[in-house]
């Protein structure tokens, strides 16, 4: 049985998307990117909303860029090998292999995916993750916390949800980024 993981870069004040600008720095260097790649190498299925998919589909062709560093090449290969499910009512087609579109988020279908999977699954994007959290589907939370306070945007955790979590692992990087892995009790 696979676990469902929710992971995003988040600002120090808890926003996964800033209302204005970006979330700050800290996740761009090779050490952090290699760490992220190592943590998610065994994810067999990524669950995306349309906007997150449109951001992540870069990895379908990242290996073809000139002078690709080894950690980028490895992440691209891992991403390409995984299944992708895109939840969207507007997306007409996908531009990556091993990808399908679902028109609605069905918690029971995700429960079946978890139960039948030999690998972990990842839900990405605060809107889609909010649905998975509300349905009690998320097992692990991986936060990559930047050094910026952005003052508003879309929160990492949805409003109105109470979660009791155990800290599993933490790490800080020279860029100031902090990694925190929590598991649902």
From TrEMBL:
Gene3D superfamilies linked: Dihydrofolate Reductase, subunit A
InterPro entries: DHFR-like_dom_sf, RibDG_C
Bacterial bifunctional deaminase-reductase C-terminal domain mapped to chain residues: 3-178
Pfam family, one: RibD_C
Protein name: Deaminase
């Amino acid at each position: 049985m696979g676990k469902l993981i929710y992971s995003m870069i988040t600002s120090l004040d808890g926003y996964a998307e800033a209302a204005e600008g970006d979330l700050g720095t800290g996740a761009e260097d090779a050490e952090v990117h290699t760490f992220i790649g190592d943590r998610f190498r065994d994810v067999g299925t990524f669950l995306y909303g349309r906007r997150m998919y449109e951001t992540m589909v870069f990895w379908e062709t990242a290996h073809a860029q000139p002078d690709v560093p080894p950690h980028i090449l490895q992440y691209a290969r891992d991403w390409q090998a995984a299944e992708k499910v895109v939840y969207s009512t507007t997306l007409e087609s996908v531009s990556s292999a091993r990808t399908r579109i679902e028109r609605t988020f069905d918690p029971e279908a995700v429960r079946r995916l978890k139960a039948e999977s030999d690998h972990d699954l990842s839900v990405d994007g605060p809107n889609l993750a909010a649905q998975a959290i509300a349905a009690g589907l998320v097992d692990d939370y991986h936060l990559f916390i930047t050094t910026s306070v952005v003052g508003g945007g879309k929160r990492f955790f949805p409003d109105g949800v109470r979660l009791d979590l155990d800290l599993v692992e933490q790490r800080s990087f020279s860029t100031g980024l902090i990694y925190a892995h929590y598991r649902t009790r």
